[in-house]
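Methods: example folding runs. The two proteins below were folded one after another, and each record is reproduced exactly as written to the output file, sequence line first and structure-token line second.
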Amino acid sequence: MTMRTTWVLAAGVVLAATTVAARPPQAGGTITGTVKVAGQASNADVVVYVVSVAGAKPAAAPAVMDQKNMKFVPHVLAVPVGTTVKFTNSDTVAHNVFSPDHDKYNLGTFGPGLSKDHVFTKCATFPCAYVQLCMIHPEMEGYVVVVPNSYFATSNDAGQFTIQGVPAGQYQVGVWYAKAKAQPKPVTVEAGKPATVDFALAK
């Protein structure tokens, strides 16, 4: 074997090794579908979540629920357990934030442009829904829904949802809604492919 042949073969081995090492990991799949809520004009605000994902870690990024135009915005905020939620006040009047659910909290009263934080560290049985209330304005109501991992979505007005980047595997997908319910459903996710699951919710 000549020196030139040896060099070419060696270069080919290095190139092949480099190509394998540079190959990105296979992307996850997508869970998509539609929810229908019996007796409701809108199918929005349904939280759809993967019940259990091995090795899944909650997203570290904080979430925000605003108080704007005398409403909690968004009306339903889903977060992974361990998330810090910043409650902001974009109105021109003072607000209060409290919840009587689970570990119960009262963040007190705070004025326009200010905010208060709460960390949702506990949930005995997922999902855990915390109703958000304001002692000053009893007509205000919202929900923080604590889910077990970062694989979740909240439906739009048409009931559509998409959960992206789910690792390939077999899962149970659950739903939460304030005024109706449905049983979890199984779904099989393949890398790079969409999986579809639909729900019909009733009281």
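Second run, written to the same file directly after the first:
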Amino acid sequence: MAHHPASTNRRAARAPHYATLAAGILLGALVFGGTPALTQAAAQAVEAAAGRIEAIDEDVRRFCSNIADAARDRRYALQQAELEALQKDIDRRIAALEEKRAEYEDWLTRRNDFLARAEGNLVEIYSRMRPDAAAERLAEVNAELAAGILMKLQARQAGIILNEMDSKAAATLTGIMASAARRQDPT
């Protein structure tokens, strides 16, 4: 027999009243020296009240066990919804990162293409300069850039430019070119 939750709750609320009433009847019978029949009636009332309390307790236990699965299912559903929302947020962030990565790769490709064209033109410019003028200009730029330009020039032409440079600057550039030509990492 299924009980409506509201009626179960009302019964549970009345349970302490039954126990109090039964205890009062029994106490009254004992204190006021009631007859054995009255004492027996009081004992039966207490037993009846205890039986009702047990029945109500059983109803409450059944009610709680019946809603436990529903509560657990609801909790799981809420957790699942939260996980799905988090997954959507992660997917959105991954998509944004992938978009930025593609944008960066495009930028890097354009930059490398530009540098390759500019470097080729730059090497050609230095190859057409007088050796003393090229040496003077290369001494003023970044040492790694100067070494890169010299490495792309013909060996004879690079030698003439290095010969025109200050010995300290020529030694620095030679050291950079030698370490760049190594096949293994010097560290």
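Comment on the second run: Residues 129-187 form one domain.
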